[in-house]
Design brief:
The protein is mostly helical. It has 3 helices and 2 strands. Helix 1 crosses helix 3. The termini are far apart.
Amino acid sequence: MYVCLCHGITDRDIRAAVSNGATRMRDLARELDVATECGRCACHVNQIRKQTLLQISEPELAAA
């Protein structure tokens, strides 16, 4: 699904970037240019970022 219409960024793009180490909004803005134009996507991008970080953390917590 397209999240940032200004730059054509999808939720998959955001999840991939977070999985590859872009863990802060600042990182996503630098890497993907999300939330740098009109800003309407910022809340949704942040929500996807947080969900992805939780999904990444859960297997690590289960292994501990």
